[in-house]
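Methods — Computational structure assignment.
A single polypeptide chain was analysed. Its primary sequence is given first, followed by the predicted tertiary structure written as structure tokens.
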Amino acid sequence: MRPLDVASGALLAALLAASPVACLVDGSARMRKRPMEGLLQALRAQGGDIACRGADDMLPGEIRGARLSGGEIRLARPPSSQFISALLPLVARPARRSP
């Protein structure tokens, strides 16, 4: 799996988690120091399959796309505005219901 180098990982991580792909997302040394815990926890709660290869909840991370449940998402306070922007497309879809 070839790494996908990102300048800003929040939006891309959310989009990839909801897409039918598998990839390794990585970034610069600065990006590897930025905590992504809130975003990754929210994506996992929606059904995202995300495994960080370095420090917990930081890049690089392997994302295997899944059909996320949509609907309500809860974030720790204060949430990053980047995380909110990244998650908006996911909350716009109706929640998946169990049969």
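Note: The two ends are 35 Å apart (CA to CA).
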